[in-house]
Amino acid sequence: MAGQSSDRLGRVGEQVDEEVLDQEAESVTQAVMAASRLLVAISARALASGDASLTLPQLRTLVVLEQCGPVKLAVMAATLGVNPSTAMRMVDRLAGVGLVERKPNPSNRREVVLSLTRSGRRLVERVLDRRRTEIRTLVQRLPADSRAALVPALRALTEAADEMGVDSADESRRVGGLVDDPLNPGPPDPPMGGRRRGGPAAS
User: Is 154 helix (H, G, I), strand (E, B) or coil?
Assistant: First the structure.
């Protein structure tokens, strides 16, 4: 009987511990989501100060190009988490206002690679500098002990995200945005004067 009582108490204790952990995880989740909304609002303000005609998704597209260098449309779409047609429409708008340029892929002439124009790069730098300044001002308003506690907590969050593979831009950097995925290679370029077999050209 004593052994059974001990087992029941152990299970109750484990259940209480799980409930406490669940509550802590939910509290942290809510806090991170609130901080995320704050950062989005700061990004929107920084963007409005630089160019009110752009949207946040368009800014994200420009930031991906700034971070990853020239990329294929398919890589851009995968990095943004949108389908290629949506990415194409966004690129068309950004190219139309002189922020993005399209060139043939030197590794595969049937593809197009995307990169920032000089104006696009200047815009990204201006908006990100404004966002950094606003975040810095916000952080400086915190008490010193709160600022110190944020550093290890945010680093731990970033490391956990890395372990989960959250940073989709890593794949763009790995392939340089130009070459095909070795696990899903595209058809090679035909020899000079030759003709490629297969479907229509992709971008």
Answer: helix
pTM of the shown model: 0.63
Whether 137 and 124 have beta carbons less than 8 Å apart is answered as no
- pLDDT at residue number 14: 60
**Confidence tier at 8 by pLDDT (50, 70, 90):** low
At 185 the pLDDT is 36
- Work out whether strand 100-105 and strand 71-72 pair parallel, antiparallel, or are unpaired: unpaired
What Rg do the C-alpha atoms of the chain give, in angstroms?
A: 24
Residue 129 and residue 13: Cα distance in Å, rounded? 50
Q: Measured between alpha carbons, how far is 119 from 116 in angstroms, rounded to an integer? A: 8
**Close Cβ partners of 173 (under 8 Å, ≥ 6 residues apart):** 67, 68
Smallest Cα–Cα separation from 114: which of 62, 154, 157, 168?
Answer: 62
CA–CA dist 69, 159 (Å, integer): 24
Please name which of 124, 8, 117 lies closest in space to residue 67, comparing C-alpha atoms: 124
User: What pLDDT shows up at residue 106?
Assistant: 75
Question: For residue 184, what pLDDT is reported?
Answer: 37
Q: Say which amino acid occupies 32.
A: V
- The pLDDT assigned to 2 comes to 55
